[in-house]
Design goal:
The chain has about 220 residues and is mainly alpha-helical. It has helices at about 5-10, 20-45, 50-60, 60-70, 70-90, 105-120, 125-135, 140-165, 175-195, 205-220.
């Protein structure tokens, strides 16, 4: 691992740009700590990575680390917060639950949302790998937080389905609650497949898989 490889892959995107040079440097160092921590988590595993490993990789002291984060778990909370914010932003305006007024608009909306989620979760695979494979073994509080995110995803998806039922382009007898859970499951499965670098020597074709999910979803819930 090198500092160069870490800097090439940003775990989270920047927010409002700091106004002063000192503030910009603080924001940059905070980002470097996050990126380096996730690089260490991916290489050594979360539990085997210590604050000393992260600090040594960056060439900073323990005190500098603790000026930015309370502990390594604090880094994960920060990344989850940013991830949730990016998802909410992707579901705004034209992708809001009440935006489509017809099956065709709903179809187009699912295509946009699918593309956005693929980008968010697979832009840096280390985030999804940690959250899906390691996070539930870190502590019970984080496990419950992830379950809460799952419940939120189910609730949001149910909102899209309920809107379609109300406007009449989705089936009247649709079980929106459990269908939403099934959709969330398909999305998680797609992310897992996307994390696989190769399969029989070939990269997983995420575009074809997401298209199959959309077709299954649309054909299964649309009004005949």
């Amino acid at each position: 691992m090198t500092s160069h490889s870490v800097c090439e892959h940003r775990i989270i995107g920047g927010v409002t740009k700091p106004s002063s040079r000192i503030e910009r440097r603080k924001a940059e160092l905070r980002q470097e700590i996050i990126d380096t921590a996730f690089a260490c988590f991916a290489e050594r595993g979360y539990h085997a990575t210590g604050i000393a490993d992260i600090a040594a990789e960056l060439g900073i002291g323990h005190g500098t680390f603790y000026r930015y984060f309370a502990n390594k778990r604090d880094i994960i909370d920060h990344v989850i917060d940013d991830l949730a914010t990016r998802i909410v932003e992707a579901l705004g305006t034209e992708n809001a639950p009440d935006a489509p007024t017809s099956l065709q608009e709903y179809r187009e909306q699912t295509e946009r949302i699918g593309a956005a989620l693929n980008h968010i979760f697979l832009e840096d695979r280390r985030v999804a790998q940690l959250l899906l494979f390691q996070a539930t073994g870190i502590d019970s509080e984080l496990t419950m937080r992830l379950y809460g995110l799952l419940d939120t995803a189910d609730m949001l998806t149910a909102g899209y389905l309920e809107h379609g039922v109300e406007l009449g382009y989705l089936r009247e007898d649709l079980d929106t609650r459990n269908t939403a859970r099934a959709v969330t499951g398909m999305i998680l499965a797609a992310i897992l497949h996307g994390l696989r670098d190769t399969r029989d020597g070939e990269e997983t074709d995420m575009s074809q898989m997401t298209q199959a999910i959309r077709r299954l979803l649309i054909d299964g819930v649309r009004k005949d």
